[in-house]
Design brief:
It is built from four helices and ten strands, in the order αβαααβββββββββ. The protein is an alpha+beta fold. The protein has helices at residues 2-12, 29-33, 40-49, 53-66, and strands spanning 22-26, 73-83, 103-116, 120-124, 129-133, 137-139, 144-148, 150-152, 155-157, 160-165. A hairpin with a 2-residue loop joins β8 and β9. The strands form three sheets. Strands 1, 2, 3, 6, 7 and 10 form a six-stranded antiparallel beta sheet that branches. The chain is globular, with a radius of gyration of 20 Å.
Length: 171
């Protein structure tokens, strides 16, 4: 299904080892202090704090204007949430029913190449007939992406971003 494919792509943006395919970067002070409407940090937080289709599309267009890849690509933006379980005084996780831990909201931005598929024969479930499917365009697994904000020491860290690069040796 559509949702399963989207979730698979999103999970691939988490794939890899810290320090290799996943590297955490702190935002430089000049980016954090830039309060202009065009500021990178401000645009990113706008999407995080008010996740709408319009804000995500605006940010995707902004991001597309800042990157260049050799092929066509799609920018997929997902907002997710993780309920952080509280720990008791002994450092043990408390039962989720009885704890009201912090909610960690974050964005996953996946930059995925687009490729033309091949024509194929498909089974039309509604008619049980074999039909011709023309060439379609496929969104492939992400080559790059990032997670914002990061999660450090059991807390949200809005001053850093976790960057994914499928081929970390390439600039």
């Amino acid at each position: 299904s559509y949702e399963t494919c989207f979730l698979d792509i999103t999970k691939k943006t988490f794939a890899g080892s810290l320090g290799k395919a996943l590297v955490e970067y702190n935002f430089p002070d000049d980016i954090l202090l830039d309060t202009s409407a065009d500021g990178v940090y401000k645009k990113l937080n706008k999407v995080l704090n008010n996740f709408t289709k319009e804000n995500a599309l605006e940010y995707a267009k902004f991001l597309a204007s800042k990157i260049s890849l050799e092929s066509e690509y799609a920018i997929l933006i997902t907002k997710a949430s993780y309920s952080v379980p509280q720990k008791d005084v002994n450092g043990e996780k408390m039962d989720l029913e009885f704890s009201e831990g912090e909610s960690y909201d974050f964005l996953v931005v996946s930059i995925c190449p687009i490729e033309n598929g091949k024509p194929a024969l498909m089974l039309d479930n509604s008619t049980s007939k074999v039909v011709h499917q023309p060439i379609s365009r496929m969104i492939l697994q992400p080559l790059e992406g990032f997670i914002y904000p990061t999660f450090n020491e059991r807390m949200t860290d809005v001053n850093s971003v976790l960057v994914f690069n499928k081929k970390p040796k390439q600039p």
